[in-house]
Structure formats: structure tokens, C-alpha cells
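task queued by scheduler; priority normal; single chain, no ligands, no partner chains; default sampling; output format set to C-alpha cells
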Amino acid sequence: MKFFLLGSSMILAILGQFLLKKGVIASTLVPSIGSFLKTVFSPIVFLGFVVYGISAILWLFVLQKFPLSVAYPALSLTYVVVVILSVFLLKEPINSFKIAGMLLIILGVYFLFK
């Protein structure tokens, strides 16, 4: 159950980030209060905040089940997933440094779970 909570929190955090990204791409965000409020309350951005908020609530249960020294570094796996999904969904570039960084993150989390 605790790994389900961890995975769910991570998946929702990733989904929330992609919704926020998609929402701001579609917005006309500029440094003004009106533009900020219009962007925050646009349906995609608002949904992104809701999904990210649910992720944060699940995270509370994760913290109850795992030591912080394990749970928080495990959350860094979301960086790896975001890079991979960004390449496919947002057509963002990837290079050998990003790949090396992802491998180091995975290796670090592996060692922390030992």
C-alpha cells in the first residue's frame, strides 16, 4: 500500500506539472496581476493546481509510511519521468548530459532504497 501511495503521489505530481505547462503555453501570461489571475483560473492551469494539490495530500500519507530520507529522494524519480515524457509529448530536446543525469538519479534512488 505504501508504494501505491508513493507512486500515486508521483504520477499526480507529474500530471499536474504537464497540465500547468500546457496551460501556460496556451496563456498570455505577462507580469501583471490581471494576466496572472486569468492564467491561474484558466481551466487547464486550475486543473493542474488541483491535481498537484491532490498529489500533495497523498504525499502526507507517504511521509507517514516512509522515512523522509527515503521518500523525498524517491520523489526525484519524477524528474526522470518528466524528462522522458517531455521529449515525447512536448518535443523537447534530449542530450547525453540529460541522459547521464537521469541515470545518476536512478542509481542514487536505488542506493537509498538498499
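post-processing summary
- The chain is about 80% helix and 0% strand.
- The two ends are 19 Å apart (CA to CA).
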